Automatic annotation (TrEMBL):
<protein>
    <recommendedName>
        <fullName>DUF5106 domain-containing protein</fullName>
    </recommendedName>
</protein>
<dbReference type="Pfam" id="PF17127">
    <property type="entry name" value="DUF5106"/>
</dbReference>
<dbReference type="InterPro" id="IPR033395">
    <property type="entry name" value="DUF5106"/>
</dbReference>
<feature type="domain" description="DUF5106">
    <location>
        <begin position="20"/>
        <end position="177"/>
    </location>
</feature>
<keyword id="KW-0732">Signal</keyword>
<dbReference type="InterPro" id="IPR036249">
    <property type="entry name" value="Thioredoxin-like_sf"/>
</dbReference>
<feature type="signal peptide">
    <location>
        <begin position="1"/>
        <end position="22"/>
    </location>
</feature>
<dbReference type="GO" id="GO:0016491">
    <property type="term" value="F:oxidoreductase activity"/>
</dbReference>
<dbReference type="InterPro" id="IPR000866">
    <property type="entry name" value="AhpC/TSA"/>
</dbReference>
<dbReference type="Pfam" id="PF00578">
    <property type="entry name" value="AhpC-TSA"/>
</dbReference>
<feature type="region of interest" description="Disordered">
    <location>
        <begin position="25"/>
        <end position="50"/>
    </location>
</feature>
<feature type="domain" description="Alkyl hydroperoxide reductase subunit C/ Thiol specific antioxidant">
    <location>
        <begin position="180"/>
        <end position="298"/>
    </location>
</feature>
<dbReference type="GO" id="GO:0016209">
    <property type="term" value="F:antioxidant activity"/>
</dbReference>
Amino acid sequence: MSMKKIWTVCVLLSLFLTYSCDQNKKSENSSTNDINELNAAGPYTPPKAPENIQGEEAKITYVFNHFWDDFNFRDTVKVFDPNYGEQAVVDYIGHFPLVKPDTLKEGIESLFNEAKIDAPVFDFFKYQFDNYLSNPNSPMRNDLYYEYFLEYLIGSGKLSPEDKIKYESLLPILRKNKPGTMATDFTFITADGKKSSLYDVKAPFTMLMFYEPGCSSCEEAISQINTNPGFNAVIGKGALKILAVYPDGNEDIWKSYQNNIPSNWINGLDPDQTVVTKGLYMIKATPTIYLLSENKKVILKDSNLNQIMQFFQNI
């Protein structure tokens, strides 16, 4: 199921069942009725806030804290039905920006403690959270929420030794370059062969873009920035500099692509692949974009162009 579709609407999907007969074989009509009842099950509906709870924040917090009260964790057929289980996960994640961090962490812990009753159910929720919070193509991807999830997961006692090592290695990288922290400095060479560094870029704001030559998404982003009057205005005023860095170190590929990078950008190459090999930045996909302040404090991490443009419209 497309994550974008499930995020915007409840898509009606057919239910695929594995059906087996027990020793007391039911009649054909009875079996058909049972399957029809299962197919008739609609999306999960969480409890509503009681009328005596006052205030929007209190109501949202109540719904979040009681979101899974009526969810049938023991019916794996329903859990694995995308219209019931996966859509419930999407709706739940949609509440994340609306609640406080401590409430969010407690909610994640409570959900997965409930899911522990059945290993396949636990694995189902683990996969969905991994997919929606970490997949580069997910419209709900969020490193901070993913960090909370990994913190729980590592201490859950439900991971294989291999998975635990994987997530323990991932967590420190995930915590780097968070909004409000200082961006990690690194060196690169410029198109004229000079050595420079991120902190050498002087401007009120810096857009750091990790790109890959020939990447269609990168080319689309470059084109959008280059033709957008808003971006051109802040660049023209000297308020924003764009540092585009090819982190994979192949100088021949980088040089052959230089004409595709606008001349008023800084085009950099990480010849030693330090950013990648030392895990200085988490680059799940390209382009990966950061917005930094004048002193290189992270404002937006792994952002998109709409968020960056909105930032400049609001300052």
